[in-house]
Protein backbone atom coordinates (compact mmCIF):
# COMPACT_ATOMS: atom_id res chain seq x y z
CA UNK A 1 0.00 0.00 0.00
CA UNK A 2 1.29 3.45 -0.81
CA UNK A 3 1.55 6.12 1.86
CA UNK A 4 -0.53 8.45 -0.30
CA UNK A 5 -3.54 6.18 0.17
CA UNK A 6 -3.43 6.70 3.92
CA UNK A 7 -5.94 8.91 5.66
CA UNK A 8 -4.60 11.44 8.21
CA UNK A 9 -5.54 9.25 11.19
CA UNK A 10 -4.82 5.90 9.60
CA UNK A 11 -3.86 2.71 11.27
CA UNK A 12 -0.77 0.87 10.20
CA UNK A 13 0.09 1.32 6.54
CA UNK A 14 2.27 -1.78 6.28
CA UNK A 15 5.92 -2.24 5.49
CA UNK A 16 7.09 -0.37 2.44
CA UNK A 17 10.16 -1.56 0.63
CA UNK A 18 12.08 0.92 -1.46
CA UNK A 19 11.20 4.15 0.31
CA UNK A 20 12.69 6.14 -2.57
CA UNK A 21 9.81 4.95 -4.77
CA UNK A 22 7.35 6.71 -2.48
CA UNK A 23 9.32 9.67 -1.11
CA UNK A 24 11.78 12.20 -2.46
CA UNK A 25 14.18 13.40 0.24
CA UNK A 26 14.30 17.19 0.37
CA UNK A 27 16.69 17.55 3.30
CA UNK A 28 17.75 15.98 6.55
CA UNK A 29 16.19 17.74 9.53
CA UNK A 30 18.09 16.07 12.30
CA UNK A 31 19.79 13.01 13.64
CA UNK A 32 19.92 11.74 17.17
CA UNK A 33 20.65 8.69 19.24
CA UNK A 34 17.36 7.06 18.23
CA UNK A 35 17.26 7.80 14.52
CA UNK A 36 16.77 10.52 11.92
CA UNK A 37 14.13 12.92 10.66
CA UNK A 38 13.96 14.00 7.03
CA UNK A 39 11.77 16.40 5.15
CA UNK A 40 10.39 14.42 2.21
CA UNK A 41 7.91 14.93 -0.60
CA UNK A 42 5.33 12.24 -1.11
CA UNK A 43 5.70 11.34 -4.78
CA UNK A 44 2.04 10.43 -5.33
CA UNK A 45 0.62 13.66 -3.88
CA UNK A 46 3.51 16.12 -4.00
CA UNK A 47 2.84 16.94 -0.34
CA UNK A 48 5.72 17.67 2.05
CA UNK A 49 5.98 15.35 5.05
CA UNK A 50 8.44 14.56 7.81
CA UNK A 51 9.67 10.99 7.77
CA UNK A 52 10.96 10.06 11.20
CA UNK A 53 13.03 6.85 11.18
CA UNK A 54 13.55 5.29 14.62
CA UNK A 55 16.09 2.49 14.98
CA UNK A 56 14.75 -0.79 16.28
CA UNK A 57 16.56 -2.44 19.15
CA UNK A 58 18.29 0.73 20.31
CA UNK A 59 18.02 2.52 23.64
CA UNK A 60 14.48 3.68 22.89
CA UNK A 61 12.06 0.94 23.91
CA UNK A 62 9.71 -0.34 21.22
CA UNK A 63 6.85 0.48 23.61
CA UNK A 64 7.73 4.19 23.50
CA UNK A 65 7.64 4.21 19.71
CA UNK A 66 4.31 2.36 19.65
CA UNK A 67 2.96 4.67 22.33
CA UNK A 68 3.77 7.82 20.38
CA UNK A 69 2.16 6.40 17.24
CA UNK A 70 -0.97 5.26 19.08
CA UNK A 71 -1.39 8.52 20.98
CA UNK A 72 -0.98 10.63 17.86
CA UNK A 73 -3.41 8.43 15.91
CA UNK A 74 -6.01 9.00 18.62
CA UNK A 75 -5.67 12.79 18.65
CA UNK A 76 -7.06 15.23 16.10
CA UNK A 77 -6.43 18.84 17.10
CA UNK A 78 -4.98 21.76 15.11
CA UNK A 79 -2.26 22.29 17.73
CA UNK A 80 -1.07 18.68 17.92
CA UNK A 81 1.26 17.35 15.23
CA UNK A 82 -0.58 15.11 12.76
CA UNK A 83 0.54 11.63 11.88
CA UNK A 84 -0.25 10.33 8.40
CA UNK A 85 0.85 6.77 8.98
CA UNK A 86 3.60 4.50 10.14
CA UNK A 87 5.37 1.46 8.81
CA UNK A 88 8.50 -0.52 9.47
CA UNK A 89 11.20 -2.66 7.96
CA UNK A 90 13.80 -4.88 9.61
CA UNK A 91 15.84 -1.98 11.00
CA UNK A 92 13.53 1.00 11.50
CA UNK A 93 10.05 2.12 12.46
CA UNK A 94 9.03 5.03 10.23
CA UNK A 95 6.51 7.66 11.24
CA UNK A 96 5.11 9.93 8.52
CA UNK A 97 4.15 13.27 10.03
CA UNK A 98 3.05 16.78 9.21
CA UNK A 99 6.03 19.12 8.72
CA UNK A 100 6.52 21.95 11.22
CA UNK A 101 8.68 24.25 9.13
CA UNK A 102 8.69 27.17 11.56
CA UNK A 103 11.09 25.48 13.98
CA UNK A 104 11.18 24.88 17.72
CA UNK A 105 9.54 27.55 19.85
CA UNK A 106 12.68 28.21 21.93
CA UNK A 107 14.85 28.54 18.81
CA UNK A 108 12.36 30.96 17.24
CA UNK A 109 12.27 33.13 20.36
CA UNK A 110 16.09 33.20 20.57
CA UNK A 111 16.47 34.06 16.87
CA UNK A 112 13.97 36.88 17.04
CA UNK A 113 15.54 38.26 20.21
CA UNK A 114 19.10 38.08 18.80
CA UNK A 115 18.16 39.62 15.46
CA UNK A 116 16.15 42.37 17.14
CA UNK A 117 14.22 42.71 13.90
CA UNK A 118 10.87 42.08 15.51
CA UNK A 119 9.80 42.38 19.10
CA UNK A 120 7.62 39.59 20.37
CA UNK A 121 4.45 41.22 21.57
CA UNK A 122 2.18 40.19 24.40
CA UNK A 123 -0.42 39.41 21.75
CA UNK A 124 1.99 37.00 20.04
CA UNK A 125 2.81 35.29 23.35
CA UNK A 126 -0.89 35.09 24.24
CA UNK A 127 -1.67 33.39 20.90
CA UNK A 128 1.10 30.85 21.44
CA UNK A 129 0.01 30.11 25.01
CA UNK A 130 -3.66 29.89 24.02
CA UNK A 131 -2.84 27.34 21.33
CA UNK A 132 -0.70 25.28 23.72
CA UNK A 133 -3.37 25.36 26.42
CA UNK A 134 -6.05 24.39 23.89
CA UNK A 135 -4.01 21.32 22.86
CA UNK A 136 -3.25 20.32 26.45
CA UNK A 137 -6.90 20.74 27.50
CA UNK A 138 -7.91 18.56 24.53
CA UNK A 139 -5.45 15.86 25.65
CA UNK A 140 -6.56 16.04 29.28
CA UNK A 141 -10.22 15.73 28.27
CA UNK A 142 -9.23 12.44 26.67
CA UNK A 143 -7.21 11.32 29.69
CA UNK A 144 -3.81 11.78 28.04
CA UNK A 145 -0.90 13.44 29.85
CA UNK A 146 1.98 14.60 27.64
CA UNK A 147 4.55 14.49 30.50
CA UNK A 148 7.35 16.14 28.51
CA UNK A 149 5.98 19.55 27.61
CA UNK A 150 8.83 22.00 27.02
CA UNK A 151 9.73 24.59 24.42
CA UNK A 152 11.69 22.01 22.39
CA UNK A 153 8.45 20.00 22.02
CA UNK A 154 6.46 22.96 20.75
CA UNK A 155 6.97 23.71 17.06
CA UNK A 156 5.71 26.42 14.76
CA UNK A 157 4.00 25.04 11.66
CA UNK A 158 4.70 28.00 9.45
CA UNK A 159 7.71 30.13 8.64
CA UNK A 160 5.41 33.12 9.02
CA UNK A 161 5.97 32.68 12.72
CA UNK A 162 5.97 36.30 13.83
CA UNK A 163 2.90 37.62 12.06
CA UNK A 164 0.60 34.69 12.75
CA UNK A 165 2.05 31.94 14.95
CA UNK A 166 0.54 28.47 14.65
CA UNK A 167 2.09 26.05 17.12
CA UNK A 168 1.84 22.29 17.43
CA UNK A 169 2.87 20.04 20.28
CA UNK A 170 5.13 17.12 19.34
CA UNK A 171 6.83 14.12 20.99
CA UNK A 172 4.23 12.04 22.79
CA UNK A 173 6.72 9.23 23.48
CA UNK A 174 6.30 9.35 27.27
CA UNK A 175 2.60 10.26 27.30
CA UNK A 176 0.43 8.52 29.83
CA UNK A 177 -3.21 7.51 29.78
CA UNK A 178 -5.35 8.28 32.81
CA UNK A 179 -8.65 6.54 33.28
CA UNK A 180 -11.27 7.29 35.88
CA UNK A 181 -13.09 4.56 37.82
CA UNK A 182 -15.61 4.67 40.63
CA UNK A 183 -15.02 2.88 43.91
CA UNK A 184 -17.70 0.98 45.89
CA UNK A 185 -18.79 4.16 47.69
CA UNK A 186 -18.87 6.21 44.47
CA UNK A 187 -15.47 7.87 45.01
CA UNK A 188 -13.45 8.70 41.91
CA UNK A 189 -10.06 7.06 41.32
CA UNK A 190 -7.52 8.01 38.68
CA UNK A 191 -5.69 5.03 37.24
CA UNK A 192 -2.43 5.47 35.39
CA UNK A 193 -1.47 3.30 32.50
CA UNK A 194 0.19 3.15 29.16
CA UNK A 195 -1.36 5.12 26.34
CA UNK A 196 -1.04 2.08 24.08
CA UNK A 197 -4.19 1.27 22.19
Distinctive features:
alpha+beta; Phosphorylase Kinase, domain 1; Transferase(Phosphotransferase), domain 1; three-stranded antiparallel beta sheet
Short description:
Belongs to the protein kinase superfamily. Ser/Thr protein kinase family. CDPK subfamily. The chain is of the alpha+beta class and 197 residues long.
What features would you describe in this structure?
A five-stranded antiparallel β-sheet has the order 1-2-3-5-4. A three-stranded antiparallel β-sheet has the order 6-8-9. The chain folds into two domains: 3-97, Phosphorylase Kinase, domain 1; 103-194, Transferase(Phosphotransferase), domain 1 (Orthogonal Bundle). Helix content is 24%, strand content 31%. The protein has helices at 19-22, 62-74, 105-115, 122-141, and strands spanning 23-31, 35-42, 48-55, 83-88, 92-97, 103-104, 144-145, 154-156, 167-169, 176-182, 188-194. The chain contains four helices and eleven strands, in the order H-E-E-E-H-E-E-E-H-H-E-E-E-E-E. The chain is α+β, with helices and mostly antiparallel strands and 197 residues long. It is globular. ATP binds at residue 56. It is an enzyme of class 2 (transferase). Its cofactor is Mg(2+). Belongs to the protein kinase superfamily. Ser/Thr protein kinase family. CDPK subfamily. InterPro entries: Kinase-like_dom_sf, NEK_Ser/Thr_kinase_NIMA, Prot_kinase_dom, Protein_kinase_ATP_BS, Ser/Thr_kinase_AS.
Amino acid sequence: MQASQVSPRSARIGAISGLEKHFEVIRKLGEGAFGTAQLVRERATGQPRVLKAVRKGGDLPAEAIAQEVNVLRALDHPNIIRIFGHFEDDRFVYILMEPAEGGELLTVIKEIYEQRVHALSETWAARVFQQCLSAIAYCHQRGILHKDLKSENIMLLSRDRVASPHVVIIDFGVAELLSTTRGPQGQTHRNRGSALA
